[in-house]
Amino acid sequence: MGRGKVELKRIENKINRQVTFAKRRNGLLKKAYELSVLCDAEVALIIFSNKGKLYEFCSSSSMGATLERYHRSNYGPIEAHQSPDNEQEYMKLKARVEVLQQSQRHLLGEELGQLGIKELDQLENVLDTSLKEIRTNKNHRMLNQLSDLQQKERNLLEINRALRSKLEGTSAALQSTWQLQPAEHNVQYQQPPPILSDMFFEPLHSNNIRYNSVEPNNVAGTTQTANMVLPGWMH
Q1: Does the model's pTM come out above 0.70?
Q2: Which terminal CB of the chain, N or C, has fewer other CB atoms within 10 Å?
Q3: 8 Å CB contact between 202 and 231
Q4: Which H or E run includes 25?
């Protein structure tokens, strides 16, 4: 049997309506995908349920790009169809930007020929005020840097003082040690002279000593005679 014709009207039964929505939504998304693949078409599908839930499909990389293409295709460029209020706001912002750019050029010393005496005086006052603020800021930063450097100097002096005190203490300890060492090493022990035994001495006998007159010409004979007369241990 063939499928009966479905009457197109709102389904009153809530459950049947939800089931039909789910089936036909999935079928529609499937058809959109098949159309984009088979026919190489750019397809964008947007579905909102009755509760506001979004379901979408886009064959391109971005839904926004497809919508912008759709807008250009139907209405032309977006800028050409701005509302009058937006156009006026745009013109005001554009004029303000041009004024600011011109003021910047004047501050840089450019395009001053078209200015009168009054405008030049105002520009000079603006530059003086800016220069004063710049100098004030510069002096403030320099004072801060000077204060930091002075604090660093005080810290370094404290460290130097502590190191010097430590070095002086170490030097004093070493000096006291050096003064004690010579006294300890230079101690001389006094010992009595050794007693010589009588065996080292040989008695002298007066009968063996002879005194002879020595002539100048008989020096050699006298030396020989003396050697003969003296004891053996005195040779």
Answers
A1: no
A2: N
A3: yes
A4: helix 14-39
| Domain finish residue from 154, 171, 188 | 171
DSSP per position, 111-167: S-TT--HHHHHHHHHHHHHHHHHHHHHHHHHHHHHHHHHHHHHHHHHHHHHHHHHHH
Q: Tell me the one-letter amino acid at 119.
A: E
Cα–Cα distance between 63 and 40 in angstroms, integer? 17
- What are the respective helix, strand and coil percentages of the chain, to the nearest 5? 65, 5, 30
Chain centroid to Cα 124, Å, comes to 43
**Contact assessment for residue 41 and residue 59, using Cβ atoms and an 8 Å cutoff:** yes
DSSP string, 184-200: HHT-----PPPPPPGGG
CATH number (domain holding residue 33): 3.40.1810.10
For residue 144, give its domain range.
115-171
Give the contacts of 56 (CB within 8 A, at least 6 positions apart).
44, 45, 46, 47, 63
At position 83, the amino acid (one-letter code) is S
Cα atoms found within 13 Å of the Cα of residue 204, Cβ hemisphere only: 6
Determine how β-strand 54-58 pairs with β-strand 44-48.
antiparallel
Q: Note whether residue 162 is domain-resident.
A: yes
